[in-house]
Automatic annotation (TrEMBL):
Residues 16-390 form the Major facilitator superfamily (MFS) profile domain. It holds the Pfam family MFS_1_like. The lineage of its organism: Bacteria, Bacillati, Bacillota, Bacilli, Bacillales. This is MFS transporter, PPP family, 3-phenylpropionic acid transporter. The chain crosses the membrane at residues 21-42, 48-70, 106-128, 140-158, 164-186, 206-226, 232-253, 274-294, 300-323, 335-359, 365-388. It is found in: Cell membrane. It comes from Litchfieldia salsa. The keyword Membrane applies. GO terms for cellular component: plasma membrane. Keywords: Cell membrane, Membrane, Transmembrane, Transmembrane helix, Transport. GO terms for molecular function: cytidine transmembrane transporter activity; uridine transmembrane transporter activity.
Amino acid sequence: MEVSLKQTNGQQESKTNLTISIFYFFFFFGLGSFTPLLSVYLNEMGLSGTQIGTVMSITPIVMIIAQPMWGMITDYTQKPRLVLTGTLITAAVIGLIYSSVNTFSILIFIAAMLSFFQSAVIPISDSLTISYVQRVKGNYGALRLWGAIGFAIAVLFSGRLSEIVSLSVIFYIFSITLFITAIIAWKMPNERSSAQVDLKKGVTTLFRMPRFVLFLLTTFMIFGPIAANNVYFGIFITDMGGTLTGVGIAFLLSAGSEAPFMKVAGNWIQRLGMLHILLIAGIISCLRWAFYFVEPSLMLVYATTIAQGVSVGLFIPAALQYVRDISPNSVRATAVSLYAAIGNGLGSWFCTYVGGVILETSGILNVYLFFTSLTLIGILTLFIIRYLDQKKKEVKNVA
């Protein structure tokens, strides 16, 4: 009887793991078919660099406002799967409308609406997945890496299809994929998360911690350019003479390289320490942006895309763990929310918007010079944090 129960639980766990993996694959397939090529589509529409930067920078700003709102809606309804499914279907419908818009002011509105509903997907699905893996003692990274694989395959697929049909096909791939994801979402584990985010209580405490404030600045400076690169990398490739298929290949290599580094990140963090991993990720990002500024050959650009695997695959888990480790237990959830909103959200918006202005006035190469400068500041900030960490350890040892 006990053996039979274990077998049943094991089968159910395997089925749930497969459902979650497929969910991440399809959702990120949708994003991969859409986000990297959207800037190229807007460029071909005749929008200026500033206008492209404005449209593309809406998402992180809307996310800062919308994500806490979706969290409250999910907590109030206690129906995360229903909210997740509904937002996916709505985002899919808006994606279809997006394809027919050709007026800048309406583009801004549609982009904001899409971002509002799309911003609910990752927090809710991650919350369900993390609650599930904690309950069954599973591996979050092993499930989440299917998102990176889906994203990588999608850019190559949609890039090639765009050359055969037209760039507008990205909207249809995006919407169809999100409809499929909505069906899968209804089969996600219906977990409940007990973690509550109390921003009022935690903000004062956290902003009195120099290391936390400096780390927000670090994330802003290092991860902002990484996020903005997803917007401008397609324009960079096409300006260098690459094709839309070439854009797909570049993203396949860069996004695809994230998965193996995500898988080994935990072991590397234990061996070298979080700050050393963050420094490695930051330095490799900085060297990558500087290399693009000197206008290398396309073959060398493709060859160096694996740098994204190191910078993203290592930076994200190390940064999240560092934020949790330096924050008091009572405000840990608040710390993670602030890290996502200020470090990632504002950093992504700033780099995307300013990158668009630079693209219009100085060209794509200077966008990467801008990324290099910001990342260098982030690396220097990390050295300051490392110094503060060492001083704190010395004080503890003396005590």
